Amino acid sequence: MASNSFGLHWRITTFGESHGPGIGVVIDGCPSGLAISIEEIQAELDRRRPGQSRLSSPRSEKDQVQILSGWFEGKTTGAPLTLFVPNEDSRPADYDYLKSAFRPSHADYTYDLKYGHRDHRGGGRSSARETVARVSSGAVAKKFLALQGIRIFSYVSKVGSISLPESLDNLDLSRIDDFAIRCPHEETAIAMEALIDEVRVQGDTLGGVISTVVKGVPVGLGEPVYEKLSARLGFAMMSINASKGFEMGSGFAGAEKKGSEENDRFITTEEGKIVTSTNHSGGIQGGISNGADILFKVAFKPVATLLQPQQSVNKEAAEVTITGKGRHDPCVLPRAVPIVEAMTAHVLMDFWAMSKANQLID
Amino acid sequence: MASNSFGLHWRITTFGESHGPGIGVVIDGCPSGLAISIEEIQAELDRRRPGQSRLSSPRSEKDQVQILSGWFEGKTTGAPLTLFVPNEDSRPADYDYLKSAFRPSHADYTYDLKYGHRDHRGGGRSSARETVARVSSGAVAKKFLALQGIRIFSYVSKVGSISLPESLDNLDLSRIDDFAIRCPHEETAIAMEALIDEVRVQGDTLGGVISTVVKGVPVGLGEPVYEKLSARLGFAMMSINASKGFEMGSGFAGAEKKGSEENDRFITTEEGKIVTSTNHSGGIQGGISNGADILFKVAFKPVATLLQPQQSVNKEAAEVTITGKGRHDPCVLPRAVPIVEAMTAHVLMDFWAMSKANQLID
Amino acid sequence: MASNSFGLHWRITTFGESHGPGIGVVIDGCPSGLAISIEEIQAELDRRRPGQSRLSSPRSEKDQVQILSGWFEGKTTGAPLTLFVPNEDSRPADYDYLKSAFRPSHADYTYDLKYGHRDHRGGGRSSARETVARVSSGAVAKKFLALQGIRIFSYVSKVGSISLPESLDNLDLSRIDDFAIRCPHEETAIAMEALIDEVRVQGDTLGGVISTVVKGVPVGLGEPVYEKLSARLGFAMMSINASKGFEMGSGFAGAEKKGSEENDRFITTEEGKIVTSTNHSGGIQGGISNGADILFKVAFKPVATLLQPQQSVNKEAAEVTITGKGRHDPCVLPRAVPIVEAMTAHVLMDFWAMSKANQLID
Amino acid sequence: MASNSFGLHWRITTFGESHGPGIGVVIDGCPSGLAISIEEIQAELDRRRPGQSRLSSPRSEKDQVQILSGWFEGKTTGAPLTLFVPNEDSRPADYDYLKSAFRPSHADYTYDLKYGHRDHRGGGRSSARETVARVSSGAVAKKFLALQGIRIFSYVSKVGSISLPESLDNLDLSRIDDFAIRCPHEETAIAMEALIDEVRVQGDTLGGVISTVVKGVPVGLGEPVYEKLSARLGFAMMSINASKGFEMGSGFAGAEKKGSEENDRFITTEEGKIVTSTNHSGGIQGGISNGADILFKVAFKPVATLLQPQQSVNKEAAEVTITGKGRHDPCVLPRAVPIVEAMTAHVLMDFWAMSKANQLID
Q: Do residue A109 and residue B256 have CB atoms under 8 angstroms apart?
């Protein structure tokens, strides 16, 4: 089954394993003439890379991107744009202890039963290393969207039980990368990082929530029935490794409100523009963007690999004790920020093209 | 843009407006030889129908399904199976007051700007009446899945601030339809219904949460990267009108846990079967079903149409006061239960076929 | 498998059997605001209808089209446009003699082995009656294209061994429908019709060739690799019942030429426009339209059902003699003309939308 | 627009330009556990490679294939299988004379108008070098199919006006590669090669026809309406560079016959198997394989690049004289043989998977 692609008009097809030659992506539907440099793509990959800080794994993967096709003299050509990141520093022996054991809450068991074999050297396609492909291609989408005035900001809004205060009014989105945890609120960021430090020494891990704000989206992206913008965003976010939940705007909290509290009232600005006075809808109504900021949250479970002993079973259904080896993040949230941004960009690019296809008569 | 289809192998294409001749669906990929009666399809439609109880709108739509193709002597033929439900009792005049006004948190505004016109007679394709097509075709999927031992149970677990107690241990899933609110726990159901009564007389509305349990799913449905079973379920649920959030298993709450608390430990049953001792994952690991019950929740916002005055604007950006007329539900949750079940069935049917396509060598 | 759709952006999904309630089509991706009347659609169906002349079957199917969705006050709404043609005058008993016999060169045998059963009452989905759906939806596509200045002309250029003279210079395309055979050259038309009369009385049948000229196609439709305009046209034409071959421009004859003879030389017109002095390419170079007339031919085999005895076998592999009963055309070519035009229109509509999706920056 | 993929279940996505780093292909939907060596893939590429004989271009491209993903210890893993062939020996300067001129019957003009620019260094995606990707991935498909007993034989049946005698009875398909021209009939092969030699010295080129026989296809591949096996084959063949026509079985010649001559009569073999006594249908009836050999032909126009002067125009619509430089084939037919085989294999693999998806209950 062809299931390694995402998108219809802007379609990424990704390939590669964590312990093969590398990870790559073909972008089909990339417009011609987009100026983008290798450095711009690399910058996004560097945000995803392990080893950026004490919060993440000390693996020193360089993740240097190469462009294999579709790019000439600094611009895209309209042909498939292929990005490839060779693997380095792979230590398959790190994973030998996993040859037959099923790690709890990993894809080991399901993968093994589905495919009749499993690449224990790092999870094959179920490895989060596949997100190298999502992020590198996402950098191209983000560049295109930025030229249309669309900017995507994701940040960590919760780690374990520590949350950002609800009000976003004082959030300075330009400061997201100023903190290793990628939460743009100093006090909260410090508390989150302290919690991670505490849990790491226990060999334990933490999950959390990433919030996203998209600014500058025009009215009209999304389709009214199955291809709702909110539905595609949910699809994209739930396809990210370890994601467990997705909510638009006020989400689950909004479900507790009355209609008279939750409805976003339309008002007219002094310039005569129709806007909403609140944004519980998260910028999407009836599946179609309404011009307000797009707001959504993604929940991530704690990293499943622990550096403390866990009971499990192996292929023979015998009990085993597993203690994670190798290099693993105690909290994947800061590295997931560019992944969430990338998947958001892929969805928006696809709808951007879709909206053009709809304009049959111009 | 072709955006009125859902699914790849089991693909539904839906058509029709709330105030045209009717609502229909073509199922392409329907297997040959499935025994299904009109009554079985009708039974699901009757669960979605308005006017079932005081909780829902008093419209007396009969929603009688017809089979237009793909069915012969009580069985499917393998050809496209087309179901059609003629519209009755439509009162377009009820909507005349909406010709130019934008109802808060409805698709009126976005639809109008996207299409340059709007069918004010009931929302065109943005109307929830489109779900007639999802539910009728879902009845066929449910029948097929039931024959494979897969049973889908959705129920209302929250209305406004009233929730089911967390533990599911004492839930009798066979009693879901015993209560108008479709919550299978008597005490909670009574409290929910009382709250809806209270809010209805205020001309206000309520949202809530629907929980789903799928039993009997074999190991191995779902693909490891973009076509994760959890991602497709998220896509499907977020495509339902008024849905605002989706979570698998422990979801947002699980994001607050440590890995040592959240991980589902593998154990071996006395029969030698590998299972998990907990099910925080909601039956899916690495995007692939693990044989445990599939568990997820969907948040729905309160109905946007209020029978109390609301301030809004019209096309000319002038202020208007809107008071909902016509027949509207104070809480859509009980009628959304068969819709959630139908969309679950569509996703599972699609992956069922996908898993066969994968078995290239048999 | 979902295989009853054609097209990506302009996508038709067809349903219905020859002996069920009727034949229908959902057009997804139909632009909003296209003015089209039921009469315009009916006019195309009337060209496909049996019983138009002595050349075709005397069945008096009225084939009256209904619009089930996506149309309001004479215009398309952008929602799925559904057309439905109820079946009339079906005489299933005509087909009883076929319950177990396999007609030579029909789909009986392959259909039976594929599906494990067969709707002998007229072929199920393998019946040419499915083309009612292609033609009715094609009328909408033709209307849209005509408004863009694109006109499609198909005509019968060969019946059995009788061909139109090669030169098209004196062909008056406005006269196609003046002759029952739909060949716009009086002398040839008369000869073709005489040949059909002669063969009909023998209980035999004839095949032939349909030629197509498309005028007004802009430069740039089609994609350079797999989605060549010529490839999609070939796909569309080979999907028509009884088609056996397809060729673009000079086709098989051009394969015999040297490059110096076959190449279409570019020249500049007095107005400074670049055109080709010949059109052996048939208006497509490298898969992309070049602004010249699009020219292609489709070969159709003779109708397989004969009104003379044929030897065959039945399900039990025993020998049987079959003599066609019911009402069958001795030559399907004139009725296939609107089908070829419709499929051409579907392909062009799809590429029209595709070319808009490509114009990401406007 | 995403248009660089072919197939639904077995889907190839190709990338790369003739003058960039290389040409590649991602196969999504490749089954797990297929044993295939680099040498087996290389062998097919070597058949496509230029410089094999005096009949083809003297470019000495080595076309050494690498496997970038989806392959471990000699077997496919079920993950996307990526093949990459680095470019060597590219001489962009060879193409400088083409910067502004439009070569007759090339994609130069259409490509330029479509994309607003053109990679004159060899045609970008319109270059036939893209077929490296088709052939390398086709080798994997052929290996899988061979294990199921399906064997594909393509050969040159016509060059210019020299054709194979019609009867295939004495054709020894095992000898196809014994002759540089890839026509397995010595006398005809010698005559074809002599004709090519004659035309080459004139700086001119030749087209021709490739015939294909597929043996061992089971009954039931193909779908009855749009996804006819014959339609997909037509689509695939018409997507090959320079192809101008496609015909199944008796094709255009069959269109001249009467039904009583053309129909393939069913008979029963001594073993009680139902077969046809003739195969004018080319092994496909109603779009579905009937178990007989699949037979079709593809017409190729003569190579457009001539090594003799041709009149043309440039971007400024001024007249120019072009004389082909660089290394070009006088007749592309022998090198197109593996391309036709590869595209045949891609279509059959896709339908093989599709037929499994149809078997929902096993």
A: no
